[in-house]
């Protein structure tokens, strides 16, 4: 099992729009991305995180090059971000 964590710096006024992007692409992610097992939105005062569950680290890494991620998710989130996202992949021991 693996997790892809994407941390986003989003101003309060844009958080609702960022959450809408999460909701829009949650089901297509779970239905169409190889090895996808979960996707959760974590909201903190300082940032917003999207935690993606995968069966393997390789599938987590592959998602970052997928059409869904590069052409859809990134395109819609980019105008809402204050800084480049922080992307981490974790392997569950």
Give structural notes.
The protein has 93 residues and is an alpha+beta fold. It has a single domain (2-91), classed as Alpha-Beta Plaits. Helices cover 39% and strands 30% of the residues. The protein has three helices and four strands. A four-stranded antiparallel sheet has the order 2-3-1-4. The longest helix is centred in the first third of the chain and has 18 residues, at 15-32. It is globular and about 35 Å long.
Roughly what is the average pLDDT, rounded to an integer? Answer: 96
Task: Give Rg in angstroms.
Answer: 12 Å
What is the class in the CATH system?
Answer: Alpha Beta
User: Looking at CATH, which topology would you report?
Assistant: Alpha-Beta Plaits
Overview in brief:
With 93 residues, the protein is α+β, with helices and mostly antiparallel strands. 39% of the residues lie in helices and 30% in strands.
Question: What key attributes describe this structure?
Answer:
93 residues; alpha+beta; Alpha-Beta Plaits; four-stranded antiparallel β-sheet; 3 helices; 4 strands; 39% helix; 30% strand; globular; ABM domain-containing protein
SSE layout and pairings?
Layout: E1 2-8, H1 15-32, E2 36-43, E3 48-54, H2 57-63, H3 67-77, E4 86-91
Antiparallel strand pairs: 1-3, 1-4, 2-3
Protein name: ABM domain-containing protein
């Amino acid at each position: 099992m693996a997790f892809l964590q994407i941390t986003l710096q989003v101003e309060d006024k844009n958080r609702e729009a960022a959450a809408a992007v999460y909701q829009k692409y949650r089901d297509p992610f779970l239905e169409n991305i190889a090895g996808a097992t979960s996707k959760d939105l974590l909201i903190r005062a300082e940032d917003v995180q999207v935690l993606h569950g995968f069966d393997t680290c390789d599938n987590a890494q592959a998602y970052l090059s997928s059409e869904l991620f590069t052409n859809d998710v990134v395109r819609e989130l980019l105008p809402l971000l204050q800084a480049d996202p922080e992307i981490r992949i974790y392997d569950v021991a």
